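Sequence in, structure out.
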Amino acid sequence: MSIKSIEPNTLKIGDYLEKKRSEGRECFVIPEYQRPYAWTVANCEKLLDDIDEYIKAGNFGDNYFFGAIIISYQKDETERVLIDGQQRTTTFFLLFKAILDKINDLLGQEYIAKAVVDPKTKGIISGLGTFRKAIMNRLYDCDEFIDSLPDESLDRPYYEAFSKLENRSVNEFKENKEDFISIMKSYTFAEAESRVHKIKYKKFDNKYSNCFRNYKFFHEALFNEDSTFILTFTKHLLQSCQLIEIGSWSDEQAIAMFNSLNSDGLPLTDSDIILAKLYSHALDKTEFQNAWKALRENIAILEQGGICNMDSLLNQYMYYLRNKDGEPRSEEGQGINAAVPGVRRYFLDQAKKRLKDPSLFCSDMGKIVEGWLTVKDDPLVQTLLRLNGNSRLFLAATFCLFDVKTDDGLNKTFEFARLLLRLFVILELEGTTYSNVRFKSFLIGESCNLLHEAKDISVIKSEFDNHINSTWKRSDLRKNVIDYDGNILVYVNELLFAMAKGASLQGTESAEIEHIMPQSDKKNPGVWKQAGMLDQEEFDEYLNKLGNKILLEKKINIKVGNSWFNDKINGSLENRWGYKDSAFPIAQALVASYGTSALPKEAWTKEDIEKTTEKISGRILDFVFGTL
């Protein structure tokens, strides 16, 4: 079936809300994948101010422009799916409802009575009545005989039958979704306020949903204005404010158009689109919504901890599925195709069948999320993720393979994490790119071996050992460790030291890099001499070597950063902060070695840095080559 052409239309706001394409009324639809309603009172205040400034400027030859809204027409064109424009359209409804409340109030009995003796009031009433009918016809499915004067007994059935905007988003907060309907179905502001949610223990406007707060703002702002202002404001809002509605008859076409036009905003993410497809295939919509909501709540915990978000989890799931199916392997079984499709293309084009089983999809994603929640605080995993984010793609696959809730499954997961750490340490030392065949292709191949070939973790370890020992020479990597001046391997060294000593290692996510020989004094010749350096150039050369850096808590590092080594070692809570107050194993070891010495060690010298760097080199390379 051919897709109709894209149809852009410049519309007045009133026409946008009222427009018909068929015998029946159109309904705006917020699709399942859209984000929650996020406009705040500040956004609404700016909207009113902008319209008010436009009216005061009086240049009505140029219409006020609200931007473009992208619509996908559905169900014989009776549903207008909001691909881009959800926030503005929802706000238009709230604003027009507040205007209607004000007009109904102005057209009350006292004002009508005043018209008997005041011709000017009679003209205002006529204008207000015309706009009342116009707004009623845009917000509700009214017939052409709707009266220009309010009559609750006649109007209420239209209010209660409100159906002009349907919010299907599974991401929307329940309070926003239900409160919007309550507002539109309530005859007065007071009635709406009595029907909407109130959050327990919250005070003032904070107890209300975002949706009701915006409506309340519009209501209060307009109720402070007189009838002349309401007439002028409503007239220009309906007749002088415009937008461009870009209509499409294909979701994919509309979404692609949105992403290309919305360079300054937030494009729809892979998870937004995939969620819509999963929802469409779900047999039990409520069950799926609950499962997806639970997923999002747990993913929010991971995102807050910097582990991953929904889109990166979908990428991890794609890697798992492709490697489990053996897709990266060539047809002859030799070699690996390391090219990876985009997540959206994979699930919408190459793996459509995966979206047809939402229950399995959520279950698998749940295993990955459960895995991250289980291991996210482990020092090994934290160090691995800090070293290279691509490690997530391969470690996540083990969560689907091994049950991390069992000791055996967790041990196998950590064993694979150690293998990944070894290879990514080499990548850090070489300074090459992850896409190099020795890294990316090898890791994809090993993931296929683990998932598709069902090889035991001990076999995978042997293959890592063979790959590392046959590809790299210890002597070459040793030179790289000695010359290394970055920070990431400081974390690796701390981890390996703790593992070797059987010591606890916690708090690395908030640790700082401490220079034992202080970097702040590098321009002081006395410091060079004390440290056994000839000049600042030599000082700079040794300053960032691994033998001069350890991890330290921020509160301690701030206090000791410029101190001499002896003061750092012997500082304490009683007089001042020092290494002895640190929980990190290497700082504790330095205190044990030098803190109680009869001959105080004033400075951390060139010789100390060289010897320590050599020790660190041996420790890291023993780990990398599988001898630690």
